Amino acid sequence: MEQPQADPVALEAGAGAGAGEDADAYHIRPLELGDISKGFCDLLAQLSPSAPLTEDAYCTRFAELARLGADHLVLVAEHAATGRLAAAGAVLVERKFIRRCGTVGHVEDVVVDAAARGRGLGERVVRRLVEHARGRGCYKVILNCTPELKGFYTKVGFEEKNVQMGLYF
């Protein structure tokens, strides 16, 4: 059964926790096609350096993700005065057979611009992603992080569980 999507207006209204005095300076919203010109790829490069993304590749991937609907949400934090993006994160909803065909949210690619850290943007983005997953009916939300970020994710409600393994190509 399709779960109702979380109300973005209600989420934004409650997203100020930890945002400090900069809360009104940034708007948390879904990624838009035009965000390539607002520094989205530069922001992601701070998370994981990689070759520059062409505008065609960005547009193609954006369209692919848009077809997934509410099962894949990318949020960004846009600075109201400059229009530049200062943070981003994503949640993917995995459809399972276990837990009576339950769903699990996977938080990925959370990054805050180096110049905007310490303003609560990462916390605001992660909380919004978690609320989206909850609104989609997920029975849990999981993520992988470096040991240095365990404190941050504990602060927003996550707890250490199991061991992460990886196989990279």
List keywords for this structure.
single chain, alpha+beta, about 170 residues, five-stranded mixed beta sheet, disordered N terminus
N-to-C span: 36 Å
In what range is the share of β-strand residues?
Answer: 15-25%
Shape: globular
The number of E-state strands comes to 5
Structural class: alpha+beta
Order of helices and strands: HEHHEEHEHEH
Roughly what percent helix? 25-40%
Report the average pLDDT across residues. 88
Q: From the alpha carbons, calculate the radius of gyration and give it in angstroms.
A: 16 Å
Strand order of the largest sheet: 1-2-3-4-5
Low-confidence parts = 1-20
User: How does the major sheet shape up?
Assistant: 5 strands, mixed
What count of helical segments does DSSP give? 6
